[in-house]
Design a protein that fits this description.
Blueprint: E1 4-6, E2 12-14, E3 21-28, H1 34-50, E4 54-60, E5 81-87, E6 101-104, E7 108-112, H2 113-120, H3 129-146, H4 163-170, H5 178-205
Parallel strand pairs: 3-4, 3-5, 5-7
Antiparallel strand pairs: 1-2, 6-7
Helix pairs in contact: 1-3, 2-3
Length: 206
């Protein structure tokens, strides 16, 4: 079924017309440097772009109460906004060490920086931490868009990563499957349609 939303200016928009786009607000609570996080964002963006999704990254300050009220980081979340936290292992609080992150629907994803570091030195190897961290980011964002029970036997949504997966990561070969990519685009388009409907309702009230 094709969803169509009419706008007040006299034309309609269907899900097929929308370029799937999300905005990700990143909060770094770990010891990862800004350059490490930026490189991880680029890698995660590449993986999600290969799945047909456009990502706008927004690095938000942590622990600052004097930020302007108009700052985008302080605005209420809309359906296509996601929050991504880069956490330290100190904050696990019951989350198993084997988990490199977790996601809470519909909009909160968290990844552990130290776990990415441990994967980078697996079997005394010396892989690039930002690249691995970026793949972990993409994985957890995938859970937000695919649902909690979305681990797969292949690709970036595998639940357990070892030496084989890390090698694929460093080759740029760990991706969402075709089926997952279709579902991701459909989910984001649905969220975008919800935003359009909310704008239309607000405009009608005003």
């Amino acid at each position: 079924m094709l969803v169509v939303v009419g706008l007040s200016c006299g034309f309609s928009v269907s899900a097929a017309d929308l370029i799937p786009t999300v905005s990700v607000r990143v909060l770094n609570y770990s010891e990862a440097t800004p350059s490490t996080v930026a490189k991880a964002e680029r890698e995660a963006g590449r993986i999600l772009r290969d799945a047909g999704l456009k990502v706008v990254w927004l690095d938000c300050p942590v622990g600052q109460s004097t930020v302007e009220a108009t700052d985008p980081c302080r605005q209420p979340l809309i359906p296509t906004d996601l929050l991504l936290r880069v956490l330290s292992d100190h904050s696990r609080r019951g989350i198993q060490y084997e988990s490199f992150g977790f996601a809470v629907a519909p909009a909160l994803a968290s990844v552990y920086y130290e776990h990415a570091m441990s994967l980078a030195t697996l079997n005394n190897a010396h892989y690039e931490v930002p690249i691995i961290l970026g793949c972990v980011m993409a994985h957890e964002i995938g859970h937000l868009l695919l649902g909690p029970s979305s681990h797969s036997e292949c690709g970036i949504m595998q639940g357990q990563w070892g030496r084989k997966q890390v090698r694929l990561i460093m080759c740029g070969s760990l991706h969402f499957t075709v089926e997952q990519s279709i579902l991701i685009r459909a989910e984001v388009q649905m969220r975008m349609m919800l935003e359009l409907a909310q704008v239309r309702t607000t405009s009608s009230i005003n």
